[in-house]
Amino acid sequence: WKLYVENLLLFVSFSVVVGVPGGLLTLWLTQSASAEDVSAALISLLAYMVILLVVSPLAGAATTRAVAGRYLNEAVSFGGAWSYALQLLLPLLGAMLLAGLLIFGGMILLVIPGLYLLLRFTFISQAVVVERLGGSRALKRSGALMKGNYGRLIALYMISIVLSYAIEFLMAMLPIENVYVRQILAAIAQA
Asked: Which of 7, 91, 92, 96 has a CA 20 to 30 Å removed from the CA of 53?
């Protein structure tokens, strides 16, 4: 807890750097796209996919590097964490792709195996960033880290969902008419 409080600004900055531009871009693209404008809808979808599949995992990796570095009393800067994360982008995306395919397969078979695999592979990013593992080794390590912790993780997911809805509810109550200002405030609040 002390680690997060002392480094709150650094840790939140990773989410804000991705969340604010990503949210604004998505908002702008969805508002500018109409039902008849297929090209704008495709651009919107592509931008969203890049944010979801590349930028967000990269921000998560940078955050993981900063947390691990600060925990080990290493001097980790904002730029240094991003640089480190960029070096691991391909192994990270490879492990995530492999996990995604397995989760998708589990969802097709039955929903329960897919949900189990989703939980089991929660710590892939940390395995890649902290332990520099890739591919199936990162998946195995994530599974080992999850052993005995499924209930805790489900509880944390539930708490984060409730907090997310609470933030959305509070943001909707603010007397802010400009959707772009509202999006910026929502991204900062959810960081």
From this structure: 7
